[in-house]
Amino acid sequence: MAETTAETPLEGEESYEEITTFESEAVEGEYTSESLASRFGDPQPAAGTGRRKQSIARVRIVPGSGKWKINGRTLEGYFPNKVHQQEVNEPFKVLELDGRYDVIARISGGGISGQAGALRLGVARALNEADVDNNRGPLKKAGFLTRDDRAVERKKAGLKKARKAPQFSKR
Predict the structure, then answer these.
(1) Cβ–Cβ under 8 Å, residues 61 and 97
(2) Is residue 74 part of a domain?
(3) Is residue 149 part of a domain?
(4) How many structural domains compose the chain?
(5) What ranges does the record give for the region Disordered, renumbered to this chain (predicted)?
(6) Local confidence band at 171 (pLDDT 50, 70, 90 cut-offs)
(7) Contact between 160 and 166 (Cβ < 8 Å)
């Protein structure tokens, strides 16, 4: 029985060079699904994750009529405050894509404001993934792809709050 080494492929197997050269060669005139999508601007399904404070939003966008489902509820049902509704819609307004995608999101943790911020980041990341060439510039310029890492500072021992010290008395 012949010994096999890493350099010699087994019978019926391709060598590493054959696999890598075949995959890296692009056939002229042949389009991939990614290039077709960006060429014609068809809405593509995509997903993104957003985080803000203690909130995590897992977002999926699919071509549709602009419906929102957040933890099984509508946008107005989940965020009754108009400020939060506008905040999560901002990425669509910047790209002028209102009503072209349906949004399905699962949000957990944190409060209302943190959840709205997490959802906005998740939507922006999903839109960026759907069409990187056209969407990344405007989203980046508006600051929607940047994660806001501010969080509540922890309370320290010997202090009343994170930074508030007990009253000092000289005598």
Answers:
(1) no
(2) yes
(3) no
(4) 1
(5) 25-56
(6) confident
(7) yes
Give the pair of three-digit tokens for residue 117. Answer: 């911020």
**Cα-trace Rg, the chain:** 25
What is the rounded CA–CA span in Å between residue 31 and residue 23?
14
Chain-centre distance for alpha carbon 81: 23
Burial class (CB in 10 A: 0-12, 13-18, 19+), 38: middle
Give dist(CA 51, CA 117) in Å, integer.
Answer: 7
Q: With contact defined as beta carbons under 8 Å apart, do 119 and 59 qualify?
A: yes
Residue (of 78, 62, 66, 65) closest to 119 by Cα position: 78
Stretch (H or E) spanning 104: strand 101-108
The b/e string for 81-90 (b: 16+ C-beta within 10 A; e otherwise) is eeebeebbbb
Percent of the chain scoring above 90 in pLDDT: 68
**Residue 101, CA distances (Å) to 28, 46, 60, 132, 160 in order:** 33, 10, 10, 16, 48
CATH of the domain at 68: 3.30.230.10
Whole-prediction pTM: 0.72
Domain that holds residue 120: 41-142
In a domain, 91, yes or no: yes
User: Tell me, what's the pLDDT at 141?
Assistant: 94
Q: Is the pLDDT of residue 32 over 70?
A: no
